[in-house]
C-alpha cells in the first residue's frame, strides 16, 4: 500500500475545493454502491481490515439509506477523513475488481456493437440504481437523462482504475485535480 496518506499537503484546499473533492468522492461512492451491494457491515469490515477508526464509518451515509435531500453527507468530512474514506472505497472496489472489469468490458462491447448497454442485466441494474439514487444528491445540478447516463458510465470506468493496485493514488490524484 502506498504512503500518500502520510504525506501532508503543502497547501490545504480552500473550502470550495474541499467541497468539490467531497462531491467527487460521494459520486464514486454512488457508483460503487450501484454496482456492488455495499452495506454498513462492508464499510465497517474494510475499516477494521485497514486499521481505520471505525467511528468514520458511522458518519458515512450510504446512498441506499438517504431518504431526504437535506445536506451533503460528506460535507462535514475533514481532509484526513476523506483520505480514510478513499482507502475504504478503493479497498472494497479491489475486492470486486473482477465484477468491475466485467461490467466495463460489457459496456465497451455493447458500445462497440452500437447496442444499448442498459439492455444487459448487469449494466441495466447498475444504471437503474444510479438513476434512482442520483437525484437524492443535494445541491446537484439537474442533469438531462443523457447526461446522467454518461456520468454513470464514466464513473463505472473510473471504478476500474480505482480498483487496481494504485487505486488509492489514482483517486487521491483525481481529487487533488480540484486544487489546480
TrEMBL record:
InterPro entries: DUF3038. Pfam families: DUF3038. This is DUF3038 domain-containing protein.
